[in-house]
Amino acid sequence: MNRPAIMFMLAAAVIFTCAGCITLQEKPQTSSQYDINAIKDAMRGYPQAAKKTAPPKAVKPAVVSKPAAQPVTRQAVVPVPAGKGLALHYSFDRVASGERKVADESGNGRDGTVFGAVLSDDRERGKVYYFNGVDNFILAGKMGYFSSGTISFWMKAETVENWRNPFSTDYANWDSCIRFEESSDGKFCIGALGLGAGFFTASMKPMKWYHVAYAWDDKAAYGYFDGKPVFAVNHPDPGSPVHPNIPDNAGHWKGRSLDFRNVAIGNGYSTAPSRYWKGWVDEVRIYDKALNKNEISKLYKDTKK
């Protein structure tokens, strides 16, 4: 299958392609671009949106051996940035009411359900969840439509390899969501049909904590890595195509991407083992507003334990 040609008219920037994401090295992206979340599947022969099958059935919790129960430490709640708008907050530092549950500290009652992931002690961050890279995940469930918003979390990969997803807004539902993805060459990117995609980094290392934030408003999408802005991409024209092999226009896919139907931590594109996150996740937040660069910088500093 021929690789699509992708061109941008910005000087002093090197174009990368990464698992369906586009970004410019060194300098933030400022021009509008096609959002090509599914291009990697056209390249590699994976199933595409045009040939989608019914969503996979719910996965039953895996039977895993768990370490001896330990008391969960209580830590100070990090202040919400000015403007509030916190729709979901999993710090993993608070005990939830119920077995296999994660406490939502936003006050919105969206406790998560744990499928196999193990609450662990990390010497840098305290209580975090570990995902085995085979079938572990946490579901926050349906959250509704976010015309603007911000997704923020900390992650540490045990291994950096194709094409693992630490977070998505619709569990194992192909391209029909916002999802984050790593690749073996150290790239980490966002896929979001109809919104705009980009690289957070091209030099991701295993066993290292990183902070990731992705925000969007009615005009553009913005990426931040370890508290610093790394890309800004205008939303594509609603009537434009997203990819030659994917039906429907950017406006259709934007509506799908912004509808958080089954928010998942530890999984993204499908239920293939290679799509499950192998590593740790901490301090997951979703806002119903696009945090600005100052708020993202403050959030990074406040949650850097």
> How large is the radius of gyration?
18 Å
Q: What coarse outline follows from CA principal-axis ratios? A: globular
Task: Please summarize the sheet with the most strands.
Answer: 8 strands, antiparallel
User: How many helical elements?
Assistant: 3
Which structural class best describes the helix and strand composition? mainly beta
Low-confidence stretches: 1-83
CATH class: Mainly Beta
CATH architecture: Sandwich
Order of helices and strands: EEHEEEEEEEEEEEEEEEHEEEH
- Total number of β-strand segments? 20
CATH fold node name: Jelly Rolls
Q: Termini separation (Å)?
A: 46 Å
Residue share in β-strands: 25-35%
Topology:
Blueprint: E1 15-18, E2 21-24, H1 39-44, E3 86-90, E4 101-102, E5 112-115, E6 118-122, E7 126-132, E8 137-141, E9 144-145, E10 149-157, E11 167-168, E12 178-182, E13 188-192, E14 198-201, E15 210-216, E16 220-225, E17 228-234, H2 250-257, E18 259-260, E19 263-265, E20 278-287, H3 293-303
Antiparallel strand pairs: 1-2, 3-20, 4-5, 5-8, 6-7, 7-20, 8-19, 9-18, 10-15, 10-20, 11-19, 12-13, 13-14, 15-16, 16-17
Textual characterization of the structure:
- The chain has 305 residues and is mainly beta.
- The chain has a single domain, classed as Jelly Rolls, CATH 2.60.120.200.
- It contains three helices and 20 strands.
- The protein has helices at residues 39-44, 250-257, 293-303, and strands at residues 15-18, 21-24, 86-90, 101-102, 112-115, 118-122, 126-132, 137-141, 144-145, 149-157, 167-168, 178-182, 188-192, 198-201, 210-216, 220-225, 228-234, 259-260, 263-265, 278-287.
- Strands 3, 6, 7, 10, 15, 16, 17 and 20 form an eight-stranded antiparallel sheet that branches.
- Mean pLDDT is 80; it is low at 1-83.
